[in-house]
Amino acid sequence: MNTIGHLFRLTTFGESHGTAIGGVIDGCPSQLKLDFDFIESELRRRKTAQNATASQRKESDKIEWLSGLLDGVTLGSPIAFMVRNEDCKPEDYEAIKDVYRPSHADFTYEQKYGIRDWRGGGRASARTTLPIVVAGAIAKQILKEKDIAISSEITAMGDADQARKDDDTVGGIVECRITGVPAGLGEPMFNKFSAELAHAMFSLPAVKGFEVGDGFALAKMKGSEVNDTFINKMDAGLRDARRETSPESRVNITTLTNHSGGIQGGITNGNDVVFRVAIKPIPSIAKPQQTVNRAGEPCEITIEGRHDVCALPRALVLVEALAALVTVDEMMMLQI
Description:
This protein is α+β, with helices and mostly antiparallel strands. It contains seven helices and 17 strands. It has helices spanning 36-46, 106-113, 130-144, 160-165, 193-201, 223-226, 312-333, and strands at residues 3-4, 9-14, 20-26, 63-67, 69-70, 73-74, 79-84, 149-157, 172-179, 207-212, 230-232, 253-255, 263-264, 267-268, 273-279, 289-292, 298-301. The strands form six sheets. The chain has a five-stranded antiparallel β-sheet with strand order 1-2-3-7-4, covered by helices on one side. Strands 8-9-15-10 form a four-stranded antiparallel β-sheet, with helices on one face. The chain has a two-stranded antiparallel ribbon with strand order 5-6. A hairpin with a 5-residue loop joins strand 16 and strand 17 (298-301). The longest helix is centred in the last third of the chain and has 22 residues, at 312-333. It is globular and about 70 Å long.
């Protein structure tokens, strides 16, 4: 499955050291004038070689738009684009092409397909997440017209500088917030808004945990501590100028707290949607490691090449992009 979304869909293609990576966006509304400067700025947020703890792979990440646009305006037809891989160094991986790197997808890919692209991890590489940023930037522009914004921050991270000195890597936690979301997005059973978000976030490499609102902390609390009390906005003196002329303005109900993270019963309640993702340390470390080769023989490897010490700074824009894709898709299903 290389496609995400129901009505607003993104299909991606390409490998880390292949000719190019890219995507096809289907279901994008027509007559949307794209802000190409914004798309480029989003790509810069995930760009490599920007600091000492990021991969030093140097790519221009220049987008080639192939279809779906006329003078920068969407036609309503599929938007196809690609970015050519320029700074490929498959020779960095030649020594380990028959070895399974610990905690990588080498073994599982080969078990599934009977073959794997050993050049930088192929399809499993973080390089292949670039199309998500492009599609997410377009989704953000759609949401901006509806006064919906998405932001993220790192709330926990290991010492990346020390890890780099120690030939090691670190992980952490990213928190994302979607503001201005209307109530009613999501389905009550298998297409819960939270389930769609979780599905999207776990599509990212290295993501190992997901929680909404207070998440796992709720398991240690009492119902009386975590229930979000409903109140009337007008009685509480709250005023949302953005929505005074919108259909949602008829609903003047909110909650005093937001332990639920803006989602109850799998459906948004009009509060900010808040969630967090846990990202594990990148498994490509320069320290010697024990593993086995394709024949099952024990061996020791030292992974060379260009790798992130910590993925979190570059992951922020990816988390936001996927949140934007899910939100646009859910709004289209409600015809909002």
